[in-house]
Design goal:
heterodimer, A: mainly alpha, ABC transporter involved in vitamin B12 uptake, BtuC, two-stranded antiparallel sheet, 12 helices, 2 strands, B: alpha/beta, Rossmann fold, 2 domains, seven-stranded mixed sheet, five-stranded parallel sheet, about 45% helix
Chain lengths: ~300, ~450
């Protein structure tokens, strides 16, 4: 038993596991960015976020496979469609519930989750659809190969964090968004059009879902229930990083993914998830506001 | 004169009564029907993973039987219900169909995770249940169920056949003695995957094969990279895999990207039975994958079947293409459900009505226990016989069912094992040029 453990620990494949954890972290980080942004600014959790990603994946699939559109262009359209969906979600649903109890907001976005799932099923059927595109992998050695799609996810997630950070800290709009997330009531008194800012944030959040969709579509089959595989884990990453804290969510994604992959490497795959969830519960006990939340 | 008028009136009256009686009897005869609750997953991940195709097979057969005028004067009245890929929904739907819709029996079930609880529940309600698909041994093993019957092959048989196939071909094709063969067994961790993997492991141990890894995972896991890394470390010659979808395509994609190599990959039904999806996901690298399943009915030599069956096979195929015109390679799933449903309608139901006088659970049970179909007597080629009390610890299981090993080459399906049914000399090891082949 111990010999097996040490052999696994000092094997080159442990390094591959660590890298894979990092790359999975990139995917999770990308998934959590938009959700975190929306929560940070509007203070509403979109339970249906993963379903918006699913609709983005369908958009990309149909434009690329059926419409023959180049993948990059299809991905850009996917981002546009999900941005529009984000805008509509706020315009038609959340906008009316800003003053409602949080549980009602949750129920409303939960309802949207089933609406999106059901609508996708009626419109696109239950078929698993596959983009049929693989970016291949990068060979580091004879034994270690890294998926280009995951490397790309990682790079894009890191890039988006930097861009968002710059946008929020340098631009006028970003300053307004930050201000509104700090004090909603005062901003209205100062004559700021909060409605416009909320809509803009929702559209950016939706657009980030489209970006995640573009990278997920390269790795996963598209089907109406794909959101179920990612929704809960994305939500947990956000909570662990401190809901609304984008840098925290980004870092939490890597803690979570490393626990999953390392646990899954030394024991059975499922133990990786047990370890990650146990750590999540423990983290909630010691830092209920999130691992990386700043003390207020 | 008066008495004549009375007689005439009496006659008219009698005629009227007779006519009324005849109409009532006629109406009763026309209304004779057996109400069947048909449960599959029409939504949720299992639907696209094969359940939808199984449901189509059952529906095609029910429509076919009705188009032939039903069975012994009974028309089939199906009530289709969606288990939504969730065991709790399957149980609720089964109970609703029995208690509220008052169905005479249930038919269908794709997922073993649903079958295990539903079978026990239906049996306790003393209703007849005919399982077309789910294969886990746990559905019937050691439970002594009275009213649940499964003409389908069970999971351990799947697991044993792939190992038997390896045992017979390892030396001649791979140049490796079976005892030295490095085998990895990976499976989804529900009753289906665990049941098949149990069959794999039991048979491999008996033959002294080297099991380098045996591991279950959740079919909804968003990442299988650690599993792939472990497989790379353990360097198996052959991987025995049991899963649904999308876990299978996720595994194949991650295995390709992480550079996992093998000499043979043998799948065991479900996701591996949906040929088109495998090729859509990984392109031509899906070529030479093996799949253990009941045979695709369209691959059987018509001469090996009882007269008339090949016409039904052709009709099922035509209806399948009508319902899903985009199909490139017909999936074995449709034929499986159609064949297993046909056994009930052509053999069990007529006997229950004629010999036992009805369609109640008891009559259907007695009729099923007397089923004795020789090999070649079903669309799937295998025979059907259920054990008598005390004969087996798997009451209700068809003891004559047997799967085959198929191999996919360039989107075409061939039978690779057993030898007597072979339509291809199995291609082993995986030819060079595939992304998965050992360098």
């Amino acid at each position: 038993m111990f010999a097996e453990f040490t052999e696994a620990l000092f094997s080159i494949f442990f390094i591959e596991t660590l890298i894979n954890g990092l790359l999975l972290g990139g995917v999770l980080a990308l998934l959590s960015l938009g959700l975190n942004l929306i929560f940070g600014v509007i203070d509403v959790v979109w339970i249906c976020y993963a379903e918006i990603i699913m609709l983005g994946m369908y958009t990309i699939y149909f434009l690329h496979v059926d419409g023959g559109m180049p993948l990059i262009l299809a991905a850009a359209c996917g981002v546009g469609v999900t941005a529009l969906l984000g805008w509509l979600t706020h315009r038609l649903v959340i906008g009316y519930l800003l003053q409602a109890a949080p549980i009602n907001q949750l129920l409303a976005t939960g309802g949207l989750l089933f609406f999106f799932q059901g609508a996708a099923m009626v419109a696109f059927g239950i078929e698993f659809r596959n983009l049929g595109v693989s970016l291949g992998s990068l060979a580091l050695s004879e034994d270690i190969y890294l998926s280009w799609t995951r490397l790309l996810s990682f790079a894009i997630a890191a890039g988006v964090v930097v861009v968002l950070y710059q946008f929020l800290s340098r631009s006028y709009l970003g300053a307004a968004i930050r201000a509104i997330s700090q004090d909603r009531e005062i901003m209205i008194l100062m004559g700021v059009n909060t409605k416009k800012l909320y809509l803009l944030t929702s559209a950016i959040g939706g657009g980030l879902a489209g970006l995640a969709a573009a990278l997920l579509a390269l790795q996963y089959d598209v089907h109406p229930f794909i959101g179920l595989s990612f929704g809960p884990i994305t939500f947990m990453v956000c909570v662990m990083g401190g809901l609304g804290n984008m840098v925290g969510g980004f870092l939490a994604a890597f803690v979570f993914s490393e626990l999953i992959t390392i646990g899954g490497y030394f024991a059975e795959l499922e133990w990786g998830y047990v370890l990650a969830f146990a750590f999540f519960i423990f983290a909630m006990f010691i830092r209920p506001e999130g691992l990386f939340a700043r003390k207020s | 004169m008066r008495s004549l008028a009375v007689t005439r009136r009496l006659l008219v009256g009698l005629a009227a009564v007779f006519a009324l009686f005849a109409i009532t009897v006629g109406a009763q005869a026309a209304e004779k029907k057996i109400k069947i609750g048909v449960i599959y997953d029409y939504t949720g991940p299992l639907a696209g993973g094969g359940s939808d195709l199984q449901a189509l097979g059952a529906k095609i057969m029910i429509d076919h039987i009705n188009s032939q005028g039903g069975v012994e004067g009974y028309m089939i009245e199906p009530i289709y219900a969606d288990a939504q890929s969730k065991p709790e929904v399957a149980i609720n739907e089964a109970v609703r169909l029995i208690e509220q819709e008052k169905v005479d029996m249930l038919l269908g079930f794709y997922s073993s995770a649903q079958c295990v609880p539903v079978a026990a529940k239906v049996d306790s309600l003393k209703k007849f249940m005919w399982i077309t698909t789910c294969i886990s041994p746990a559905v019937l093993k050691g439970r002594n169920l009275k009213y649940v019957f499964r003409p389908q092959v069970h999971g351990a048989m799947f697991g044993e056949l792939s190992v038997d196939f390896l045992n017979s071909n390892a030396q001649s094709k791979l140049g490796i003695a079976p005892k030295k063969l490095r085998v990895a067994i990976i499976h989804e961790d529900g009753p289906y995957g665990s049941g098949v993997a149990g069959g794999n492991a039991g048979a491999a141990k008996k033959l002294g094969m080297n099991i380098v890894l045996k591991e279950g995972y959740s079919a909804t896991a968003p990442d299988l990279s650690s599993l792939v890394t472990k497989l790379k470390r353990k360097k198996p010659d052959v991987i025995l895999h049991t899963g649904y979808n999308p876990d299978i395509t996720l595994f194949l994609r991650q295995a390709k990207e992480q550079g996992l190599r093998w000499k043979a990959l043998i799948g065991h039904g479900a996701g591996y039975g949906v040929v088109d999806k495998l090729f859509d996901a990984i392109g031509d690298d899906a070529s030479h994958i093996f799949n253990v399943d009941p045979v695709s009915i369209w691959k059987l030599d018509p001469k090996s079947l009882a007269p008339g069956l090949s016409d039904i096979t052709a009709k099922v195929g035509a209806e399948y293409m009508k319902a899903k015109p985009d199909t490139k390679t017909k999936s074995a799933h449709v034929g499986m459900a159609a064949s297993n449903a046909l056994v009930f309608f052509a053999d069990v139901l007529p006997r229950a009505i004629k010999k036992y006088g009805g369609i109640d659970a008891e009559s259907l049970r007695k009729a099923a226990l007397e089923t004795d179909i020789a090999p070649g007597g079903t669309l799937l080629g295998y025979g059907v016989k259920f054990p008598k009390a005390g004969e087996s610890d798997m009451m209700g299981q068809n003891m004559r069912a047997s799967p085959v090993v198929m191999q996919y080459v360039d989107r075409k399906v061939y039978i690779a094992w057993p030898k007597v049914l072979q339509t291809i000399d199995p291609v082993l090891p995986l030819p060079k040029g595939s992304a998965y082949s050992k360098k």
